[in-house]
Records
---
Amino acid sequence: MWPIVSFCVFLFLTSWLFALVEIHIEGPHGWATSLPTWRVQNRITRIFYGGKPLTGYHLYVQLFVLLMSHAPLLIGVHPPTWAGEARVLSFFILFWILEDWLWFVLNPAYGIRKFRKEHVWWHAKDWWWIMPRDYWIFLPVGIWLLVISL
């Protein structure tokens, strides 16, 4: 029981803090629209980013979080195992879903009431019912990876 509780508490705290960092960086301009960063949009980015352009900002931030999520395995705190890798990937996936949602909830320019496709151009194309398609696809994957890692 404790591994799940500690995982969830750590996931929430890190997602909350990173959402606040991104709110300070992006302000009301989601998906790095006002940041001085490069953008690429092609077939590959349509598949992996749901029609949104890949930005340098997002690529480097995502790679940083992926590497930092692996830190306990890579610096010898825990021996690398398949279960450990599943838990790291679960954390990585669930972190980005929760962080993205918290970006809206905590952002004074949005709030929970504006978490709708008509207010969020970068999720609007692939919005399914009450949330973006990516949440529907990756939330079960992240939970499944967590369950198999226990």
Note: The first strand starts at residue 39 and ends at 40.
---
Amino acid sequence: MLAHRSNEKEILDLGPGNYTAEEFTHCQKMLFRINQILGTFHGTVNVLKKSGKKAQVMDVGCGAGLFILNLSRHFPKMTFHGIDISSEAIDMANHEKSVFTSDTSNVKFEKMAEPELTFDENSVDIILATMVCHHMGNEEIIAFFKQALRTTKDKVIINDLHRNPIAYWFYYLFSPILFRNRLITYDGLISIKRGFIRQELITLLEQAGMKHYQVKWCFPFRWRIIIWKK
């Protein structure tokens, strides 16, 4: 079952007609909480600490924007630009920004008309993509790597999932008890099946022509990939 990446679609990928607004809102908030608990958020903070204090960060597939809104607390001199192809995600992101308890003047959100990155070359310092690549097919990922590296001046930071039987069965047993949201429990299992093993990531990076990169396994069952411009 986990020998190869799955092509199954997640409910979220099927569009708003397949879930309620309440399910979507709860799911987005829980996903950020999961990223906090599993260390994805704090790991990203540690990487950004090594960047320029006034760096421009673009979050691709920003969802409800909670990731970069909370990053802005740690890095008030950086600017954050969240983009997503989902109207409901950007609407929620702008709402979360309006009620956020810290200054958010350095954060903006924008709906994209198409999934491709069509920004000017070297137009931002850092591209961030958290739990985005597993939604893509291999050819889309290769194209994204190329587009992201073209857009950034410095580096691309990617957080995603390790496809592993232990992770799958642990999540299968405990996610219905812990989360009680089908967008998290059902989609989460598909996400793991759409995740990556190390060699797959290396192959995709090399097929995209990436020369300077790091693929780091992080507990529990996740990857942090950094691609440097040079």
Note: The domain at 22-228 is CATH 3.40.50.150 (Rossmann fold).
---
Amino acid sequence: MTTASGAGLRIGITIGLHHEAETLWNNGIKQNAVFLAEALKHCPSVASVVLVNTTATAITPALPWDQARWPTVTFEAAKDSVDVLIELGGQIDADQTEHLKRRGARLVSYCCGFEYVHAMESMLFGKPLWGRNLFINQRYDDIWMVPQVAHISQPYFEVLRRAEARAVPFVWSPVFLEERSRALPDGGVYQPRSGPRRLSVMEPNINVVKFCVYPILIAELAYRARPDAVALLQVTNAERMAKDSMEFITLMNQLDLVRQHKAVFLGRHETPVFLAQNTDIVVSHQWENPLNYFYLETCWQGYPLVHNAHLCADLGYYYAENDVAAGSARVLEAIDGHDAQAQTYRDRQRALIGRYLPGDAAATQTYDTLLQGLMRRPAR
């Protein structure tokens, strides 16, 4: 496909920087933008992809990615050159939208968050989200959403944005994981070890979709069954609850792991470092979030991941839904058998994760078809 200039499509993907040297590990949004950029560069109809910052934060060499590989510009610098702007990590306003539309550019809303859950929790629990400053753009030419958010948020997207939403391929790359892990022992890759296992729960605990209690209960059942096989349970992103939530404190004090001083509740940690330095087995649980970067990071590095994410049930050690007894059995299975097949496991995980990598043939074809359809339809 060519544009009016005769070249392929020029794509912009928005980000919203808040700091010149912002870390990539505080949430997945910036990584998502970079991975999508990398995926779209493989599409035959695409000539170029840039990241477009929508905030006033300066773009400097302190950014945690290679700007030669992933060029990063301001909206002002991109507004007259992009053919498609994909709004992902930063929102544009009505005037900026009008400017793009006058040029004939297309605008895509790329949805990778659980917006319905965030809105619901904000309203129910007094967590400020947008106040009086809500702007929902009515002029998107398409809505693309990652598949894990479709079940709960698709109607929310469609009614408020007044457009049809469609699921698109989820993309991920190990590029940042491996860069961050390079200086770690063994490149941060899982290493067999003898003795009782260190279990880690690393849910963010910032909303209901990824919360730590069920993984803790899985670890508790494994400990009750085989106390000599569990050295420690570590729960990250839980320090605040362990100090300030009497409900959490009281509930945890019912558990053998806690009563016998086999559990610790920690603050925030970077995934690659905590895996390499502190972890033998990861125990996870999600509710309406059946695919995320954390699972891929853990499995790519060869760590046993006990999880209930049905969209990637072939990865790690899967248990269904909220079946904590089955989850506990998978923990014990990993304790007993993972080390004997650690290399085979890691190789298999990486082969399976190949379907999410930029350049995957099926994903590339899907995105190219979406872009061609977007440009054929009249602009809104």
Note: The longest strand covers residues 46-53.
